[in-house]
Amino acid sequence: MAEAMIQELGSRPVTSAQLYSCMRGYNAPPAHVAVLKRRGEVVPLRRGLYVCRREGTLLSEGLIANQIVTPSYISYETALSWHGIIPERVAVVRSACMARSKEFRNATGRYTYTQVAPGYFELGQTMQGKGADAYVMARPEKALCDLILSTPRLRLQSPRAARTYAEYYLRVDMDELAGWDADLIHACALAANKKNKDLLHLERMIRDEQRD
């Protein structure tokens, strides 16, 4: 029955109520969940949230990140790496949220959440994947804005400084900037509650790169 339950739930995060609803045939669902956790077939993500692990099925860090804290979207170095903008593979899944900044560690990985302003939060999000497996991620422009805003002691005091940061510190392939939306960066600068000028310098750098 456990295998049938795991098949029914799939590999998407589920709440305790959803998990227990698949165990109506058991007298003590919590005890059976404890057995499945010991076997590694049910993985706790945070209190009241689980994911079922099926052999041969990869768990989606994107879905998990979105569900641990809602609403949230994957961003920062994680999104830049997943979009192929920076060369490094990032071990931590970083997200932006409107709640307090938090960190979670579980058997699937490490997930961090950074609080941003509500009006700023709504900008520059895109869906990755399809159907029930889709998750929310920042567009590359928004991910870079998020990273700049969240990096302590980073000050971009000119478009030239913004270029140096992107090209030499982050090792961005500058050819990738040709298709970026500078208007989105401008909107982020207006909505951000700090480092507004830094983002405006980034916007100017992007526009200059696209003119060359």
Task: Give a short summary of the structure.
By secondary structure, this protein is an alpha+beta fold. The protein is 43% helix and 18% strand. The strands form 3 sheets. The protein has a 4-stranded mixed beta sheet with strand order 4-5-7-6, sandwiched between helices. It has a 3-stranded antiparallel beta sheet with strand order 1-3-2.
Largest beta sheet: what is the strand line-up?
Answer: 4-5-7-6
Strand/helix succession: HEHHEEHEHEEEHEEHHHH
User: So how many helices?
Assistant: 10
* Alpha-carbon distance between the two ends: 63 Å
**Gyration radius, rounded:** 20 Å
Low-confidence stretches: none
The assigned structural class equals: alpha+beta
Number of strands: 9
Shape: elongated
Share of helix, binned: 40-55%
In terms of DSSP E residues, the strand content is 15-25%
Largest sheet: 4 strands, mixed
Task: Report mean pLDDT, rounded to a whole number.
Answer: 91
